[in-house]
Amino acid sequence: MSFLEVLYFIVPSAIFYAAPLILVAIGGVFSERSGVVNIGLEGLMVIGAFIGILFNLFFADTFGNATPWLALVAAMAAALLLSLFHAVASISFRADQVVSGVAINLLAIALSIYLVQKIFDKGQTDFITERFGRYNVPFLQDIPVLGPMFFKSVYNTSILAIVIAFVAWFVIYKTPFGLRLRSVGEHPMAADTMGINVSRMRYIAVMISGALAGIGGAIYAQTISGDFGHATINGQGFMALAAMIFGKWHPLGAMGAAIFFGFAQSLSIVGPSIPYIKEIPSVFLLILPYVLTILALAGFIGRANAPKASGKPYIKGHR
Amino acid sequence: MSNRAINLLVPVVSVILGLIVGAIIMLISGFNPINGYAALWSGIFGDLYTIGETIRQITPYILAGLAVAFAFRSGLFNIGVEGQLIVGWFAAAYVGVAVELPKIIHLPLAILAAAVAGALWGFVPGLLKAKFHVHEVIVTIMMNYIALHTTNALIKTVSGGGDRTEQIFTSASLRSEFFQNMTEFSRLHFGIFIALLMVVLMWFILEKTTLGFELKAVGFNQNASEYAGMNVNKNIILAMVISGAFAGLAGAMEALGTFQYVSSKGGFTGIGFDGIAVALLGMNTPLGVIFGATLFGSLKYGALNMPNAAGIPIEIVEIVIAVIIFFVASGYIIRLFLLRAAKKKEAK
C-alpha cells in the first residue's frame, strides 16, 4: 500500500468518525462561551442516539429514505429538552455545573436503557434499516489527490457537520448575538449592566448545545453503531468536550480537534489493515486519543483560554 | 431553622424527591411503585444473605466516596475515581495471582499495590494541574479511558490471552469464613473494616494534622493560602495522590474481596462515578460518606431484586440516583424552599 493509498483509506474514515464529535464539540463551545460548563454533553448525545434509533426503527416504513434526517430532528428536540434540566439547575438553581452535568449523564443513560428494556424487552435495540448514504460530490471529486480523499463516497452528515462549524463561527464572531453570548461568558456583570439578559443568553446557549449534541448523538448512532445500547456512545461526549478545549473554545478549532480525534479513533479501527500501523499493539491505538488530549492540554495549547465566567453561576448584584 | 439543620435536610429532601420521581416513572410506565419499592426493600434487608451482600456493596462505595470527598475538600474535582479504582483493582489482583506469600505479608502487599496504583493515577492530573494549570476534570476523564484500555490489555497479557485472571491465592484474599457463615454464604468480606478505618484516617488527616489544615485552606482560597506561605502546588498534588489512593483501595475491595480476580471490562464499573454522588450526599465529610455509601450501596444491590420480584427494570434505581444527584447539586433551591417554609411557620 502506498502512502497516498493509505491516506485515501484513512482520511475519509477520520472525517466519518469526526462528524458527530464536531457537532457536539461546537455545542460545547456555545454553552461554555456563555459561561456554562456542560459535562452533560455525553448524556445529551446518549439521548440523541437513543431517540434517533427509536425514531428510525418506528418510522422507517413510513418515511423511507428521509427517515434518518427526520430522526435527527427528533433527536435534536429530545436532547434540547434534556438540556433544559441542566440549564434550570445551573442557571436558575445555581447548582454546581459539573455536578449537574454528571447528573444529566447518569439520567440520560439510565432513562434510555430503562425505555429500551421496556420497549424491546432486552438490553439493546434492533439494528436500523434506513441509514445515511454516501455520496460523490460533483466536480469536487475530480480534483486531483484531494478529490478522492475528501469528496468521494463521503457521508452527507460529515458535510453537514463541517457546514455547521462554519455557521457557528459566523454566529459567534460576526453577529450581535455572538457578541452578547461571549460577553455573558466573559463578564456577566458588565453584560448585565449593558442591558443584556444574562440568564436568557445562557438558557439559549445551553439549549443550542443540547440541540447540537442531540444531532451528534443521532448521527453517531445512525452512521457508526446502527443500534442503541448502554455502550453505544461510551465516552464520545467526553471526547467532544476535550475537542472543544483542544480547539480553544473556538468553533473552527473545535472542528480541527474533532477531526484529529476522529483520525485517532479511526486509526484504532482501520489500523490493523494498514502496514506498519498493524504492528503496533492495539492498546496503544486505543489510548492514543486520550493520551494526545492530555499532552495537548499540558503543552500545546497554552493556558487561560477558557471564557472567564465559565462555571460560575451569575447572581445579580453579587460582586 | 438553624443552618446546620438545613444542611442536613438538603440531602434528605433530595433523596425523598428522587424516590418520588422514581415512583412517578414507575406509575407512568405501568408498574406499581409500592411493589417496586417493596422489592427494593426486601432486596436490601430481605434476609441475612442480602444484608451481607448489601454491606459488601457498600464497602467500595465508602472508599470511592472518600476519594471524591477528599479531593473536593482541597478544591479539586476528581472525576477520575473510576479509573483509579480500575487500576487499583488490577494491581491488587495481579499481586494476588503473581506470587504466593504468607498471608500476613501477601494481603497487605496486595492492598498496598492497589493504593499505590490509584495514587499514581491521581498523581498525573495533580501534577498537570499544579505545573501546567490543566483542568483536572478533563485530565481525570481521559485517565479513566486510559485505565480501562490499559488494564484490559494487561489482563490479556497476564492471563495469556484470556478475559480474566486466575483466582487470587487465598493468602491475598479478604474473604472471611466467619462472615460467610454468619450471612448464609454471602460474599461479605473484611474489606468493610478497611473502609471504616479509612474513614477515620481521612477524618484524622483533615482535622488533626497540619497537612489537613493546609489542604482545606487551599480548598477555600488558593490565593490566601499562597500568601500565607503554603505550597499550593504541593498540596494540590498531594490531595490528588491521597484521593487516588482511596480510590485504588476501592478497587482492592473488588479484587481481594468480592470477585477474587479481575476481568476485562467493556465499560466502566460506575462505582467511581457514584462516588461523586456519595461524597455530595455526605457533604464531603468522612462520616457523611458512610451514610451516602450506605444509601447508594443499598439502592444498587437492592435494585437487583426488582426485575425478579416486581418485573421492573433495574435502571429505575439508576434514574432515582441521577435525580438525587441533580437535587443535591441544586441544593440552593431546596435551601430556599426550606427557609421560606421555616419563615412561614414563624410568622404563624
Automatic annotation (TrEMBL), chain B:
Q: List the keywords (alphabetical).
A: Cell membrane, Membrane, Transmembrane, Transmembrane helix
- Please name the InterPro entries in this protein's record: ABC_transp_permease (IPR001851)
Q: How does it sit in the membrane?
A: Multi-pass membrane protein
Transmembrane regions = 7-28, 85-102, 109-128, 134-155, 188-206, 236-259, 271-296, 316-338
Compartments reported by the entry: Cell membrane
**Domain of life of the source:** Bacteria
Record's PANTHER family?
Answer: ABC TRANSPORTER, PERMEASE PROTEIN, GUANOSINE ABC TRANSPORTER PERMEASE PROTEIN NUPP
Name-wise, this protein is: ABC transporter permease
Q: What is the lineage of its organism?
A: Bacteria, Bacillati, Bacillota, Bacilli, Bacillales
